[in-house]
Automatic annotation (TrEMBL):
Gene3D superfamilies documented for this protein: 2.60.120.1440
Protein name: FecR family protein
Keyword field: Signal
Keyword Transport: no
Pfam families given in the database record: FecR
Amino acid sequence: MHFLSTIKFYANLSLVSLSLLTFAHATPQESAGIVTFMLGKAYLNNELVHVGTEINQGDTLETLSNGHVHIRFVDDALVSVRPSSKLSIDHYAYNAQTPSESVIKFDLKEGIIRSISGKGAKSARDKFRLNTPIAAIGVRGTDFVVKASNKLVQAVVNEGAIAVAPFSSSCDASAFGPCSEAVELDGTSKQLLELNTLYSTPRLIPLSASIELASELFKSELTNSQSNTEDTETESSEKDQNAKDSSNNTNNAKSNSGTDTTSGTSNNSSSFDSPFSEAMSETEVKQIIADHVAKNSVDQLTTSPVSTKLAWGRFSSFGKVYQDTKNDTLIYESYLDAAEGRESLPVAALLGAANGLPNATALFRSGSDRSSIDYSLGNVDFDLKASQVNLYMPDGGVEEMDITDSFLSVDFTKGSFNTGLTLNSLITSKVKFNMSGSINSNGELFPGSSDSTRHFSGATTLEGDEAGYLFYKEIEAGMIEGATIWH
């Protein structure tokens, strides 16, 4: 037996050596990637990371509890490194001329990452490997999230598939590609894969039975990435406490439920709790916000998420500005900033809540020489310019949603509109949002029918060159809030 084991050991060693020789011609680039987004603090080989920092083969990236880093690699792969995580780029040799000969290997020592495969991993699936402390992960052209520690690995696939196997004599950590005895998780299966040191093989759990586990994969990013720099950490914690104190005096946002086009629709019957009376009209809400704009001055204008004639801003009846710098990528965290350089009376507003803090979100519009919309424009098809869609879950977690398909058609002559979005996230199936209705002479969009699971408010510019709307939609996993700007 000892003799046979020795032969097997040297055979495996020879195979690994042969593989490395085969991959030798895929020479690593001088730079494997670059940091494109940065929150909080992170270190690359013990040096502070900044936007623009180059990532190379052999580097180790470590994020602090408030750190969050996005990396774009040379083959257009994207990796999001969440707070309290440690990722090593063991090997990154992308062959642009022959992508199938690329060799890529990561080592997630702890924490959470989201990986979206680039040309290298898609073309050379047999040479891509993500190691964790207890398992090897291969891909099938994929978008997935992995949480890893010394005792546990959890994964959710958004698109494509991954193959996960615990390390063993037949699954060596030094090898490349998926292991032969791996368990595969497909993005269409609506399952979470989990492996811990007590299991001999990974197990698959239906997402419907593991929503808390799935949301836990994202929670650390949402609860820890509260400040952009060390200088703002104290201020951020004070804002978080203010939000907590305020939310203790209010109920979380809810909405009525009903039949919908997605399998994740809730059948509970409830209504939105807001800081305003439910009997208050949208016009009254707009006037309240306009009065606050008139009474307050803007000390400092925050950087605009997107330069437009239309801008979204949040307003809270508690007198405190709703703060969510992590998830508010399109909506100004202060309505005062959204109103700067625009009319003080918002053209659209919607009551709701985000992270349990009741607020109104209002759309401000630049002034115009026109007094009404241009009815001669006829039917105009808009393109989605910018968007922000988040799923607010009952446990306090927030998951960003992607818009995979969109349309907005406004008939200025007939006074009607029709719009639709297809939404997707790591923990939900595809969700459809559709709305049609009318547009008045002031460019305000009004939904044509009442639906207890959907809430909508929007407007266009009087010139008809921009549009924007905000919506809420309740599904089984939580409440979706979405803001859009169209050109």
